[in-house]
Amino acid sequence: MQQQQPTVAFFGATGGCANACLALALQAGYHCSALARSPSKLHNLLQQLKVPESAIAKYLTVIEGDIYDHQAVQKTLTLNDRPVDLIVSGLGGKPRFEYGIKATLDNPTICQDGIRTILSAARSCAQKPRIVIISTTGLSDTRDVPLMMMPLYHWLLKVPHEDKKVMEDLVEAEMQKKPAGEEPAIDGYLMVRPSLLTNGEASGLSKIRTGTDQNPAVGYTISRRDVGLWIFEKVIHQASLADCPYWGQKVTLTV
């Protein structure tokens, strides 16, 4: 057990990856906050993952609002009258089709808009948090998806991938302020790039393959629960956040 457990703020907490990570953190006794447009939906999802009511009541603070509400985001970044230690962002939109064939999202800029709000709110934190953002494969200059899936990525997933790429660029640009002598809004970042996400049970930590931007782990799919499990075990559930070896990296995940 950690001597001083990190506090964690979750955005996109009703999404599969972040929701699975949040459930594990609550079950393990970590104090968490979560921004939710529908607190009842978040509560129901945590119940489905068998999080005890006692753990939800004791360890979770829910702020009602959306990612465009700067004040609500600021509230989410504070727990027990101090800034949170870690942010986990699993923001994403719901797919829809225009004219029956053109793939897009209900909100095509949700990731970049959301990260702008988070970074803006984090600038007012006396102690800067670290951030984990859930991105995607298919953004690297090195091929990180199987050849057979490349048409799918370039057509069906083009819009969400463009959004996530801007999100990644904004986080990297924020950290570049430090060498320039400015104080960035965050103390460090980790970009998690899972392969195509699926629903269902987790395969387990031992089955997850990890890679880097330069040497990615190439695979077809990974479950959302596995992504949440990896973030919990490799980042949150360490002796300290600094013990996670992946800060400043873009880590690909697949099974």
UniProtKB/TrEMBL annotation:
InterPro entries (UniProt xref): NAD(P)-bd_dom, NAD(P)-bd_dom_sf
Top-level taxon: Eukaryota
Q: Which Pfam families match?
A: NAD_binding_10 (PF13460)
Q: Which residues form the NAD(P)-binding domain?
A: 12-233
Q: Which family does it belong to?
A: Belongs to the avfA family.
Write down what this protein is called: NAD(P)-binding domain-containing protein
